[in-house]
Amino acid sequence: MNHEFAIGSKAAERYVLGEMNEAERDAYEEHFFSCAVCAEEVKATDELLCTIRQAIPGPSMPPARRPRLPGPLQGLLSRLMFWWSSRIRRRNV
Predict the structure, then answer these.
(1) pTM score > 0.70 for this model?
(2) What angle do CA 73, 22, 74 make, to 5 degrees?
(3) Distance CA 20, CA 15 (A)
(4) Which residue, 25, 30, 35, 65, could crosslink 20 as a Cys pair with Cβ 3.0–4.6 Å?
(5) Among 67, 1, 69, which residue's Cα sits nearest to residue 34?
(6) Whole-number Å distance between alpha carbons of 63 and 28
């Protein structure tokens, strides 16, 4: 997946909401691990969704259908997101 397609297809939002099939998810993950802009968009989208769910509790907000990665990959994703967010914070200071 290239960057223009990822942005045009709203891949970050669809990824966080779990609306991608396995092939799309694999292609997007391969892209955003090497694209800092898309990685930040996934992080921001996830944070926004969590904030909305906290502000509007109840049955109208279904639980997240976020894809679960195997243990080592989930840990890697968490470390990459932390690394990227700390980079952004340092750049904005």
Answers:
(1) no
(2) 15
(3) 6
(4) 25
(5) 1
(6) 22
Spatial distance between the Cα atoms of 28 and 21, rounded to a whole number of angstroms: 11
Backbone angles phi, psi at 21, to 5 degrees: -80, 175
Q: How far, in Å, CA of 53 to CA of 60, rounded?
A: 10
Please check whether residue 45 is in contact with residue 32, taking contact to mean a CB–CB distance below 8 angstroms: no
Residue 27 has pLDDT above 60, yes or no: yes
C-alpha span between 4 and 2 (Å, rounded) = 6
In percent, the amount of the chain with pLDDT more than 70 equals 60
Distance of CA 35 to the CA centre of its chain: 12
CA distance 93 to 86: 11
